[in-house]
Sequence to fold (360 residues):
Amino acid sequence: MKKAFLALADGTVFEGISAGADGTALGEIVFTTGMVGYLETVTDPAFAGQIVTMTYPIIGNYGVNRADCQSGKVQVKGMIMKEMATHPNNFRSEETLKDYLLSENVVAISGIDTRALTKIIRNQGAMNGVITTDENFKFENYKAQIEAYTVGALVSEVTCKEKYTVGSGALQVTLIDYGVQKNIIESLVKRGATVTVYPATTKASDILADKPDGIMLSGGPGNPADYPGLIAEIKELLASGTPLFGTGLGHQMAAIAMGGKTEKLKFGHRGANQPVKDLAKDMTFATVQNCGYTVVKDSLEESVATVSHINVNDGTVEGIRYNGIPAFTVQYAPECKPGPKSMEYIFDEFMNLVGGKHNA
Fold:
């Protein structure tokens, strides 16, 4: 077994076992708490630029089925595990997680104390780090690279290159791809939509010229404030009066477009057990999330928007409904179903709005 090293910006070094490709991966170290869904996690474009720590102690026990991938490639910079299962047992399994990571040239490490690592991130916040199989590893040789790293504006790297259409429903829904997951498209198609997916840089005028019945803004990677050009186009879409729904990064950029502000969370919301309260329903749901930023509460004027959902753990904003226009957005990933009380009803609300069954 080949050694691998994980080094954090604060100088902490873990020694473990290589669980993927040889090489070095530099990125922002974050953690996610899902017990399952590791394939969906590593192929989620919102994880671009990040090295993800899996807090569940054994990963890979049901193998890999590429039908579960949420995009066309692995999006994470690297992967951290306590233990990697080498003999998966599941009738859908096509290959082991290690074979998959090797085929995708992903650097990964196992055999480290992920609980200790997670405590560091919770206490100090998400921080830069590196995974390497360098046999002559010395922290001093990587210190400058780690300190200089920034996730950056990665939407241009994860968005589609040209528009494409999925489904044949009666309602025409435009989906702007800031880093879309496959499940979002499927959720719209099964509700009667023809979904046309547009590259992130598409002008609002071009989208509106196609006369969509509704517009959806996808999630994606990075700091929403790094995308002023995209935000300007969203502002124009919101002003058009076309029904609009956004998640994740799309939710955050829409808030900025309407005069709000965002801020970085200390260690983010990532996993399948984030409790979110729908204030109108007075109900709390378990949600899947992958976000490092949040809309600042009270940064939007009361005349402009109303907070519709909050995170029960820390009180941060999880949903916004805009006043006077047919638009609402949420922070979490409603296309995922972590529990029996699915948040997919949000898609139903959007499609009802698109179909004219709801008033703004």
Summary: The chain has two domains: 3-148, 155-354. Residues 155-354 form a domain with the Rossmann fold fold (CATH 3.40.50.880). The chain has a mean pLDDT of 94. DSSP finds ten helices and 19 strands in the chain.
